[in-house]
Amino acid sequence: MKTIFITGGSTGIGAASVRKFIEEGWNVGFMDVNTDEAMKLVESVGNPDRLLFVEGNTCSREEISRAVNQTVDKFGRLDSVFANAGIHRANTLLDISDEELDLMVQTNIYGTVNTLREAVPNIIKAGGGSVVINASDQWFVGKPHSFAYGMTKGALGQITRSLSIDLGGYGIRVNAICAGTIHTPLVDNLFAKFSKIEDKSVEDYWREENALYARGRVGTPEEVAELVFFLASDKSSFCTGGHYLVDGGLVAR
Ligand SMILES: NC(=O)c1ccc[n+]([C@@H]2O[C@H](COP(=O)([O-])OP(=O)(O)OC[C@H]3O[C@@H](n4cnc5c(N)ncnc54)[C@H](O)[C@@H]3O)[C@@H](O)[C@H]2O)c1
């Protein structure tokens, strides 16, 4: 039975991924700062033998180490990691504070690097496996009010390339998912801010966002979890170093 470690698993894309891997018969260890939502998820999944939650912040290498070790102790091995935890703040080069810039870099870049530094040696011990990094459509395109977010997601896209080369010899594939707008708590909070900045109602903001997509709507966390599962599993055995869009046609425009 395979085991995956997921960061930011309490809500949104992470939570849908936790559910998907449990449905597919995997063991899942997940970590998040949001314990309340994690507890609701654990209860609704109802599979204590194959699911472990560890509270922790990816910005702390010590906390990541503890969560990865507890996952390996419980399930005996680690085959895959989904470095998913991330945040977005509305900013441009002209208005970002030093504190916000630091928070974005610490969370989205260092948080991911910390996760990989702790998880990958365990995947090597298991004889190889798969790394999935949650980048963004902002690896491909720029978006307004997203200076620091785009910068950090660009870094994750590059990490995907270099790691796929360095880890290939260990039998580890490394891929990034690049999602368009997916309806999650992160986006609900963000669009409330964006609509204020642009002096629009939230409803108008959503209407315009949906219209950008060839599918006529933004995506769901479950639609992203399908891609995460494909890339984490042996079904994607010839995929490595790739940036996989799940964007309803946004970037095709
Ligand atoms: N929703 C989108 O439109 C979209 C698009 C492309 C990429 N993404 C990426 O997907 C990932 C998940 O986002 P989401 O939309 O599901 O948002 P979300 O806010 O629903 O989920 C993020 C989860 O990560 C947790 N988290 C945040 N910082 C953490 C930290 N330092 N340590 C541990 N846990 C932490 C949060 O508590 C939350 O449970 C992010 O990396 C985001 O950038 C989202």
How does this structure look, described?
Helix content is 48%, strand content 15%. Strand 4 (80-83), helix 4 and strand 5 form a beta-alpha-beta unit. The protein has 253 residues and is of the alpha/beta class. Helix 6 (185-197) crosses helix 7 (202-211). The mean pLDDT is 97. It has one domain (3-182, 220-246): 3-Layer(aba) Sandwich (Rossmann fold), CATH 3.40.50.720. The protein contains eight helices and seven strands. A seven-stranded parallel sheet has the order 3-2-1-4-5-6-7, with helices on both faces. Nicotinamide-adenine-dinucleotide binds at residues 7-8, 10-14, 32-34, 57-59, 84-88, 107, 111, 134, 136, 179, 181-182, 184-187.
List the total number of helices: 8
- What is the CA-CA span between the terminal residues? 41 Å
Estimate the mean pLDDT confidence. Answer: 97
Q: Specify the overall morphology.
A: globular
Q: Which kinds of small molecule does this entry bind, naming each only once?
A: nicotinamide-adenine-dinucleotide
Strand content: 15-25%
Number of strands: 7
CATH superfamily: NAD(P)-binding Rossmann-like Domain
Taking strands numbered 1, 2, ... along the chain, how are they ordered across the largest sheet? 3-2-1-4-5-6-7
CATH topology: Rossmann fold
Return the CATH class. Answer: Alpha Beta
Low-pLDDT ranges? none
Which helices and strands occur, and which strands form pairs?
Layout: E1 3-7, H1 12-23, E2 27-32, H2 35-45, E3 51-55, H3 61-75, E4 80-83, H4 98-125, E5 129-134, H5 147-167, E6 172-179, H6 185-197, H7 202-211, H8 221-232, E7 243-246
Parallel strand pairs: 1-2, 1-4, 2-3, 4-5, 5-6, 6-7
Helix pairs in contact: 1-8, 3-4, 4-5, 6-7
